[in-house]
């Protein structure tokens, strides 16, 4: 038999590579620049080991910009993205509008393992329209050394009165340490996510049962007055520009005594590679006023397929991979259990190894403490804890957020901000026909 030459072998290999390249499908994924999503992007090569014929291009954006771009694309069926990172606010509205492709999972995926409250929020008329990448509530992250120095002990379930006292005692502006860091950047998913959750614990609500805006009530005045007092007296300078990522950086640099924000931040503030205070952090439930509701929110960043894509099959494969039990194990293997995306699967919280993670229990309790169908003390016609699940909320929430951010910056009083919020919300709701 005649032996083939090295040239023929080389040409055969090249032809195979060209053939594979010709059949490879490229999907474009739009995602937010949060740490867990950046980690997912870094594990693209692991996805390609399973699906070598699917290439992935990433568009990673700041939260407000991501929302703007994916909303425009989905409404116009632009087809710019094949997978979108969206939240529990968008999924039921967009699913109802048939803007998303229903997802179908293999038996191996174990959809029943997804925490019911999270799964229900992504289901419309019995169809699942998104898969949760991670879920979160909010909680208090605090410096144990500064709390001890102040002669205080953080309760597991503190009140706002205690938080105000602790913020005052922990503030040392000469050393650049501020008692509390909270979101100030305008946006329905930025400062209003925090302030709306806070308002729930003060007995406030966005609308009464007849959809009348409620910013002219004493409950909203108490909420905003307390927020501004905390931030203007004990918060960092320039706080009206600070969102999740900015406050995360401040806390990791040792600039914050307390930070009330997403439970997902716990893995970042306790990571010794990134946080200078990693060994001095503990956690507590979000505060209350003794009225029956705490300032917890409920959110999931999810992966969904827009109806405008022509690559739904490949997109579905990526989503199933990225939200599977196996993905959680992959992250645990490479970066430790503390860095696994939290809040989505019951099996994670039943895992003995994960139970050793210092914030696992508090995260789970915070998520389970929320009730999107009954988010406030007084009855309301809407669902959603830190948002109102109506299409108009994205615009209204950001507009109100701009008013409150301006008050934080000292450009107007709390009274003026609330008056403007009431006027703008009434106008938009009237225009929408409520």
How is this fold's topology laid out?
Layout: H1 6-23, E1 25-32, H2 35-42, H3 44-50, E2 54-61, H4 63-76, E3 83-87, H5 90-96, H6 116-120, E4 123-124, E5 127-128, E6 131-136, E7 138-143, H7 144-149, H8 160-170, E8 178-181, H9 191-201, H10 218-234, H11 244-252, E9 256-262, H12 266-269, E10 281-285, E11 299-304, H13 312-322, H14 325-335, H15 346-350, H16 352-355, H17 360-368, H18 393-408, H19 414-432
Parallel strand pairs: 1-2, 1-3, 8-9
Antiparallel strand pairs: 3-11, 4-5, 6-11, 7-9, 7-10
Structure description:
- The protein folds into two domains: 21-135 and 299-355, 3-Layer(aba) Sandwich (D-Maltodextrin-Binding Protein, domain 2), CATH 3.40.190; 138-297 and 374-432, Periplasmic binding protein-like II (D-Maltodextrin-Binding Protein, domain 2).
- It is an alpha/beta fold and 434 residues long.
- It has a five-stranded mixed beta sheet.
- Helix 18 runs antiparallel to helix 19 (414-432).
- Strand 4 and strand 5 (127-128) form a beta hairpin.
- It contains 19 helices and eleven strands.
- The relative contact order is 0.17.
CATH class of the largest domain: Alpha Beta
By CATH, the architecture of the largest domain is named 3-Layer(aba) Sandwich
Number of strands: 11
CA gyration radius, whole angstroms: 23 Å
Alpha-beta content class: alpha/beta
Largest sheet: 5 strands, mixed
* Spatial sequence of strands, sheet with the most strands: 2-1-3-11-6
- The CATH homology group name of the largest domain: Periplasmic binding protein-like II
Chain-averaged pLDDT: 93
**Total of helices:** 19
The arrangement of helices and strands along the chain is HEHHEHEHHEEEEHHEHHHEHEEHHHHHHH
CATH topology of the largest domain: D-Maltodextrin-Binding Protein, domain 2
The termini sit apart by 84 Å
Provide the low-confidence segments as ranges: 1-22
**Shape field:** globular
Number of domains: 2
Instruction: Note the beta-strand portion.
Output: 5-15%
